[in-house]
Design brief:
It comes from Spirosoma endophyticum. This protein is of the alpha/beta class. It has 23 helices and 17 strands.
Amino acid sequence: MPILQPIVNIAELLYQKGIIDVLVSPGSRSAPLTLAVARHPHLRIRVVADERSAGFIALGIAQQSRKPVAVICTSGSAVYNLAPSVAEAFFQQVPLLLLTADRPHEWLYQQDGQTIDQPGIFGSQVKRSYDLPADYAHPDSSWFIERSINEAITLTRSYPAGPVHVNIPLREPFYPTAGETFQFERVRTIDTLTGIPTLAPDTWHQLLTVWERSERILIAVGQLPRDPNLLRILRKISEELGIPVVGEITGNIPVNELFITHTDTFLTPLDDETGNMLRPDLLVTIGNSFLTRNLKTFFRKYPAHQHWHIQPMVDRITDSFQSLTTLIPSDPLLFLEKLFADVDYQRFLQGDDDDDSHEYLNQWLALDRQAAQHIDKTLNQPDTPLTDWSAVQVVLEQLPNNSILHLANSMPVRYANLCGIHERQQISVSANRGVSGIDGCLSTAAGAALATDQIVTVLIGDVAFFYDRNALWSAPVPPNLRIVLLNNDGGHIFRIIDGPSRQPELETYFETPHGYTARNTAEDAHLTYQVCDSLETLGSLLPDFFQPGQHAKLLEISTDKFINQEQFLAYKTTIK
């Protein structure tokens, strides 16, 4: 089948350019692509029938491997089903390569089946879109395909990483005849070298001057994968220079004696005197989005005089606190390591080894400890009922050390952030906080479990779980996946938000009561299933639940939405 050799070569290019994992959703128009990757000896293929789920599973694999993952689907509405995962990958900066089969363009608007306008279908939610030719007779066509695939794969990885779309029109015949074999020829790869931006000496000295003249300096860490080296330098900076390090669970900032992790609680009742006391002269931010509104509101209401944001390259200005003064093109870890070394050396030369500069840090720490005590008091009364929040605390405390936690959107990620995870547990946290939808949380966690042998626990609410049940459809479900389902029979977050919670239409138009349990879903997917309705039962079930086994496990925690609401509103009332 020499006419399809350029398509067969795409599979070889994936391998040579470092892509091993490929998600395939079955279809006829995509058959040449599917057969090419399926018959390649070095690619790892996973079949997921639901394209929406396939996109999020690919996202979960890429989150853990930090390498591009390819997704193949057929033409028509199948392509649109990738859109939610594409948007999440774009805003979370996760590398995906989308290979979508298409009909030749002359058949568009000719009442032909599964034919829609696919080139550029994802709009600005991808880094770039490519549209390959449908005919390969001229050598330039093969050259164009080869060059485009090289460029597309490189682009998925270059900063900021993200999804890239390659649309591939295909003519019949799609299937090889009996006895035909695929020849995986070595094809030309085009390597694109990357470098780390280096600040000019004059620029670096100007930054050091601003740092040295700033009395109150604060570092805030947005969403980032866990990086032990980054945590190590942040601890050094805080401990030795007296700099508050503020972070959240989605930024993989753990609870310890130095980091500030309970801002969502103590920044809620803030008065102007305290706000001005905490206001930094210099704010240094790294990472992507922040989770909590209270933290973002604080930085907007009490803006720093100088705000530096550090990212590997300047692609666009992100000014979420409306106070940005300097965008620094540098790797955050390398920047902070050099900054600490230079500042520490300067302090040594000046003989400045006292702890007077720690007053600002101690102000933040005092409030953080008070907030932690308040949360502990809320959740650890003798008569504390089983609620979504109290269950989350128990689960987080018993997570296996060195495991992976995926937090679903809506209330689970917020409850987990209020509790935090202690540094000694060495937990890596992931979440779909690029677009923050519930639509692919379970699929993303399943993808994460496929990418590792570690235990992967997903903490998920009932609406997000039932919305994404197709994550469990494509067997086998990885045995290291642990699903903790908080089932309160509805969209609990709408009882917490002031607006909808006060409306008479709350239950009908905002919550989604359903009356379902996960028992049948677990049985269909061959999961080990358990259910609990008390804190005592939960505590006793978790040790065995987290043990390795031959099957994935689902623990369904049944709670009362009215008791959930009562507990959370009591917490909010007392902190005010």
